[in-house]
Write a structure and sequence with these properties.
By secondary structure, the chain is of the alpha/beta class. Helices cover 47% and strands 13% of the residues. Strands 3, 4, 5, 8, 9 and 10 form a six-stranded parallel sheet that branches. Strands 2-12-11 form a three-stranded mixed sheet, with no helix packed on it. The two termini are 29 Å apart.
Length: 339
């Protein structure tokens, strides 16, 4: 379903309509636990970013080369109270076990970046499992913790890789902000590229063992901190369950205690308030978006400005359906007064 464009006035009123329709139909809902994969995509995607109401982002480093700037990275991150995620290879663990321990002891997250950094696109499943397990084994030996996240070498992935890693209990993590520091641009260029792309829920990609990254990082963190961003680990940023992934690889959380409304009830409510939809200037296509979002519980069909309210309302309806009628009436009065 293609995205729609709404005016600010329509967004405000449509948000109230979405809330009203959900609550008005809540008396007929059945509570369910909506699981990942309940609405499978044609092509499986890793997690590139998350939909996040707070200004939280994850700083990540791929660690597969040498260890020239370990101390500097730890010091810089400490200065800005930034907890980062280091995706390390098993080979790096073999060569620089003390550096892995230093990252971990400094409070950072250590996750799996494969054992030997092979090309994994189209890889034999058994080879992929073996390589991944070996890296996890080495990380656990050094940190005492089992990795739960995986970043594929070279950023390669296909359906087989994602399915395999999911079967191993691991989420595949990409990024939506790439410093491209491995090409060794200037520190100024790294800073410009990164700051241009950051938004709440972003996952930023850097590499260790690069002088220009060490130089650019303080300015990047200072700038983002001044904008109110909080630096968290990937595990703290991503959703563990009850989410969908949109076409851009963004995690979209389902409403807590997601709800299912019968098709008949949805159609009844939509018919009942069709005149109100028209009066607010919504097109047939926009109205259909609301209908589909209510049917599936998948709020990715709605404009981003509306999703937080829709999530809040759906969660509220799921928690307390007994008050649905009175809440719906109150919203109805508010909407009627606005017409």
């Amino acid at each position: 379903m293609k995205a729609m464009t709404f005016t600010k006035k329509q967004i405000k009123r449509f948000a109230a309509i979405v809330a009203f329709v959900v609550l008005a139909a809540a008396a007929a809902i059945t509570l369910i636990a909506t699981s990942v994969g309940s609405r499978a995509e044609k092509r499986l995607l890793p997690i590139y970013s998350t939909e996040c109401a707070d200004k939280k982002i994850a700083i990540t480093f791929d660690v597969a080369w040498e260890n020239s700037n370990t101390e500097e990275l730890i010091s810089i991150l400490k200065d800005y109270d930034a907890r980062a995620t280091f995706f390390v290879t098993g080979d790096f663990c073999d060569r620089y076990p003390e550096d892995v321990k230093k990252f971990f002891d400094a409070g950072h997250e250590i996750e799996n970046h494969s054992d030997k950094h092979p090309h994994v696109l189209g890889a034999n499943v058994n080879d992929l499992i073996s390589d991944t397990r070996e890296c996890s084994r080495k990380i656990k030996m050094l940190t005492g913790e089992e990795p739960t996240l995986y970043r594929a070498p070279y950023g390669e992935y296909d359906d087989s890789l994602i399915t395999t890693l999911d079967g191993m209990g691991m989420k595949v993590i990409q990024w939506d902000v790439d410093s491209v520091d491995w090409k060794k641009p200037s520190a100024a260029d790294i800073k410009k590229k990164v700051l241009k792309g950051v938004k709440p829920g972003s996952i930023l990609l850097f590499h260790n063992d690069l002088e220009n990254t060490t130089e650019a990082l303080p300015d990047i963190l200072a700038n983002l901190q001044s904008q109110g961003y909080e630096f968290v680990s990937v595990s703290e940023l991503v959703y563990k369950d009850n989410y969908t992934i949109d076409a851009n690889g963004k995690q979209i959380p389902n409403a807590e205690g997601a709800i299912t409304i019968s098709d008949d009830k949805i159609e009844e409510v939509m018919r009942q308030y069709s005149d109100m939809f028209k009066a607010l200037g919504l097109s047939d296509e926009q109205i259909e978006q609301a209908r589909q979002a209510l049917k599936t519980g998948d709020l990715t069909a709605l404009p981003e400005d509306i999703r937080p309210l829709a999530q809040e309302v759906m969660a509220s309806a799921a928690r307390d359906t007994s008050n649905a009628s009175s809440s719906g009436s109150a919203l109805g009065e508010e909407i009627s007064a606005e017409k």
